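[Discussion] Sanity-checking designs against the backbone

I'm trying to build intuition for which residues belong where. Below is a structure token string of 191 positions. I'd appreciate it if someone posts a full sequence so I can compare it with mine line by line.
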């Protein structure tokens, strides 16, 4: 075989292998079918409760700094700081409790005068009936307030067309390490 054929085979094998690993989305025809059935679908409310583990120090951080402005270090709110997270979600506050998914995305300091993070992330669920489904969050997170309310702007899988609210409450914040465990309660409308 020439080099091109080998390359084509490798690409083909990679593309073919992917669906078996990540078979979480339906084909577009099934998605269209789901939309056609919407008029007779009933809207329901689902509540989720889990803990989010943001580890920024140690050997295996789950959130890593990716950018900062030249002025970030001089800012009282670290304005301009950006971090990429892949934080585990568990049923309980104990990091070793049953995993239910990951929070993948970016948070950054978006407030100059008061600390408010821009949160843009996907909750990717891995447990039971929610396995493979996601919820998208786009909101403001003033982390030192008791409760922070962030919009759920959409979802996939069992959460298609979801909209709702995620409420975050810090369970533990280690001021030395910066690591945090945050309790999340999510309420959504979906079909
Ligand atoms: C979730 O789905 C993946 C594949 O899509 C599968 O490998 C995994 O075992 C499933 N997990 C659970 C808890 O069902
Ligand atoms: C907070 O973090 C520091 C530094 O990593 C660690 O030594 C300490 O044990 C942590 N405190 C708690 C209560 O986990």
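Best answer:
Here's mine. Compare freely.
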């Amino acid at each position: 075989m020439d080099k091109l054929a080998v390359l084509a085979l490798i690409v083909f094998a990679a593309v073919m292998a992917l669906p078996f690993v990540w078979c979480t989305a339906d084909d577009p025809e099934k998605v269209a079918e789901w939309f056609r059935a919407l008029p007779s679908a009933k809207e329901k409310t689902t509540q989720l409760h889990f803990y989010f583990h943001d580890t920024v120090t140690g050997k295996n951080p789950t959130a890593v700094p990716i950018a900062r402005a030249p002025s970030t270090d001089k800012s009282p709110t670290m304005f301009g700081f950006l971090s990429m997270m892949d934080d585990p979600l568990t049923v309980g506050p104990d990091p070793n409790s049953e995993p239910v998914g990951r929070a993948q995305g970016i948070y950054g300091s978006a407030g100059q005068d008061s600390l408010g993070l821009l949160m843009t992330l996907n909750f990717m669920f891995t447990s039971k009936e929610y396995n493979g489904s996601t919820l998208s969050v786009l909101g403001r997170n003033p982390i030192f307030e008791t409760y922070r309310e962030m919009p759920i702007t959409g979802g996939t899988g069992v959460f298609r067309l979801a909209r709702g609210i995620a409420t975050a409450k810090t369970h533990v914040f280690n001021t030395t390490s910066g690591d945090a465990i945050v309790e999340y309660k999510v309420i959504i409308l979906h079909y």
